[in-house]
Structure formats: structure tokens, C-alpha cells
Write a structure and sequence with these properties.
The structure is a homodimer of 190-residue chains. The longest helix of chain A has 24 residues. Chain A has 190 residues and is mainly α. The first copy, chain A, folds into two domains: 53 residues, Arc Repressor Mutant, subunit A (Orthogonal Bundle), CATH 1.10.10; 128 residues, no CATH class. At the A-B interface, helix 8 and helix 9 of A face helix 8 and helix 9 of B. The first copy, chain A, binds a DNA duplex (30 and 30 nucleotides) through helix 1, helix 2 and helix 3.
Chain lengths: 190, 190
DNA sequence: GGATGAAATCAACATGGTGTTGATAATTTC
DNA sequence: GAAATTATCAACACCATGTTGATTTCATCC
């Protein structure tokens, strides 16, 4: 029973495809990247691509999955001042995967990453909003939450696109400060 | 000198094309709409389309231009409690052009509409942020502003996608309340 | 180190959208 | 009704897609 599935060869091929894709994405909008282009840069036959991925969308989803997998552990952090720690680690990770993160956050509407991250804090946030805004209507509360989520994502995204010389630390502090100002999450100490 | 440019015929053709495009956009992602499809629904020859527009992107830009033209007068409003009036009118207008607005706000990164709207308030906001957050670094201040813009856009967008039974009035009030809470724009009375 | 089977290559194909062109027909306006 | 503009039509070359079948390459196990 030689000739085993998921060879080193497969691993290599997949990795070359991913790297080539990401390289192209650094300079080109994702909607304009063709499978042909990816394969040419990766020096892989186009048929080989379709052997592993349905299309370029499928490829990107797999890349997103990997990022999600590395983000999930962060979400488990708890305890005193956890929001600051949490944000700090999240921002660091996204920054390390800037190209992918930028695309994911730009299309946050359909992002599973974003859904995962914020599902984690939604309940807690809603409870605090309820107190702070003296608002009981869950329909309205939900829009407050959306404001907070979109504000955070948008800020991080903007920073990923151009940090303007602002460090991870500075961004984390600033974001924490705004969130504190909206006074959600009962965050009193940062 | 008969046979004048920009006939009724031209006007009709352009309008049919726009309407068909918007109709398709209600049910389909913009990146998947082909020129062929638009022309078939509009019952217009594909060559005719290219007579008026470079491509489907160009078509969408022209539609966005029209929306921008109708939004600009709103930005001129001033005086006591203007933010509330301002938001109220803006939200109403976007809601009346939901399909276009949704697409524009989803791609707010490249949206000229968004740029126009927020360029109008940026200076004022930055000044107030500076006071409220006791922050002088313009790099950091800018990220505060981004948070506020993205939060607002994201909230309106979410509402456009699914109002959850929330009225224009309720959304306007809620948004004003959050902005007040971040205590920007010196907004004390709503 | 040779056999084995998985994976990659290659060429070819049908499909479908793109953007353009040149001749012809229809329509608007005067 | 004449003149100018606009729309139609058919045809074209072009390019990316996704699939197929035959063939070669290669990693792994014994």
C-alpha cells in the first residue's frame, strides 16, 4: 500500500499555490485574480489547481480557515482587564497576516472570522449596553452592538492598510479607550 | 440640424439599462452580474450598452453619482441640533435607494459617497475628539474618527439589510445617542 | 532499490462572457 | 420628409473557465 494520500508533494503544491495567491493579492483586488494567473506564478498546472480547490474562492476560504484556527485560542482568554490583552493579541495576529486580514475585514459582512470573534462577546456586551444606555429594546440594543463591532473592525482595517506610524500598542490603547468611553463591557481598568 | 444628441430614445435606453441593473442587483452580487445579463433583461443590444458605458463598473459609478448629487444638499444643513436632522435626512435618502446604498456602503472603502459625506464633518470631529479624549496626537485622533465613521456606516448598513422592525426615527435616535455618548461634535441637545 | 498507487502534467475541448466593428434599420427632431 | 443620431444585428478574436483522458513523475512502503 504505497503511494499514500496527502504526500509531501501535495503539501508542497498546496503551499506554493497559497503563497502565490497571497503574493498576487498584495497588489491586486481579489475579484480580478484568475486561476490561470495563480498557477502560472506557482508554476503548477491548472488541472492540478482544480484537483485541490473548487475555485479561487474555495482557496481563499481555506486560507481564512487557517487564520480562524489561530485566532480561536485568543478568544478563550479571561480575567481582569482581559479586553486589553485580548485586543492586543488579536491585533498582533491580524498584523502578522496582513494581506489575508485586510481582505477578510474588508468583506466583514460575509466573514466567518468576524462572526466567530464577536459572537464570543455579544451577550456580555448586550447586557452592559442595556445598563449604560438605559435601553431595553433588544432590536435597538443590537444596533448599538453593531456600531461597536463595525467601529472596531473599521479602525483595525484602516490601520492594517496604513498604520501611519502607529504601533500595535498605541492602537490597542486607543481602541480600548474608545470602548471604555462607550462604557461597554464594564471595563474600568485598562 | 435634426437628430439631436441625447434624444428621448437615449434617455429611455439608459434608464432601462439602469433599472435592469438595479433589479438584478437586488438578488445577485455585483461581481457576478454580466453585461450580457443586463442587456437581456433590458431588451437592449449589447453593442448599445457599450455605446453608453465602458463596463458594468462605469454604469454603477454613474448611478452612485446620482445618489451623491441628491445627498450633497443635506450636508449643507447647519444650526442647533443639526446632527439629528442631518442623520434623519441621510438615513431617509439611503433607505429610499436601498439597493444602491447597500452596495456602496458595503464597499465603503472605495466609496466616493462616504468620502464626501464624512469629509464634511472630519475637521469638526477631530477638534472635539481632541478635547474629549485628551489626545493631541493627530495620528491617534484620526483612528478615533475612523471608529466613529465605520460604526455609523456599519450600523446604517446593517439596518438597510434588515431593519428588524426598527423605524427610521428609532435608528436616527439610537445613532445620535451613541455619537453623543462618545461625546463628539459637542452634541448636547438632541 | 523496485513495485505501487497517488498526484502532477499535458493537450484538447466545449462553454461563456468580453469588447469591437461595419453594415443596416429605426427613430427623433426640425 | 430629410438629416442626423441612435439602436440593431451578426460576426469576430480573445481570454478565462472547468473538465477529461492519457501519460509521466514521484513519494512511500516492503
Amino acid at each position: 500500500m504505497a503511494g499514500v494520500k496527502n504526500n509531501r508533494r501535495v503539501q508542497y503544491t498546496k503551499q506554493v499555490i497559497k503563497q502565490s495567491f497571497l503574493k498576487i493579492l498584495e497588489e491586486k483586488d481579489i475579484s480580478k485574480v484568475s486561476v490561470k494567473e495563480i498557477c502560472e506564478l506557482a508554476d503548477v498546472n491548472r488541472g492540478t489547481f482544480y484537483l485541490h480547490y473548487q475555485d479561487s474562492n474555495d482557496l481563499f476560504n481555506q486560507i481564512e480557515d487557517e487564520l480562524i484556527a489561530s485566532v480561536m485560542p485568543i478568544l478563550q482568554i479571561e480575567g481582569e482587564g482581559f479586553i486589553h490583552v485580548w485586543l492586543s493579541k488579536l491585533i498582533h495576529l491580524l498584523n502578522e497576516n496582513r494581506t489575508v486580514s485586510r481582505i477578510i475585514l474588508t468583506d466583514y459582512q460575509n466573514s466567518r472570522l468576524v462572526k466567530n470573534v464577536f459572537a464570543e462577546v455579544q451577550n456580555m456586551a448586550m447586557r452592559d449596553f442595556s445598563k449604560d444606555f438605559k435601553e431595553n429594546d433588544p432590536r435597538i440594543l443590537n444596533f448599538y452592538f453593531v456600531f461597536f463591532v463595525q467601529g472596531s473592525i473599521g479602525t483595525i482595517l484602516e490601520w492594517l492598510k496604513d498604520d501611519a506610524g502607529v504601533s500595535e500598542q498605541e492602537l490597542t490603547d486607543a481602541l480600548t479607550k474608545v470602548l471604555e468611553r462607550i462604557s461597554i463591557l464594564g471595563l474600568k481598568h485598562v
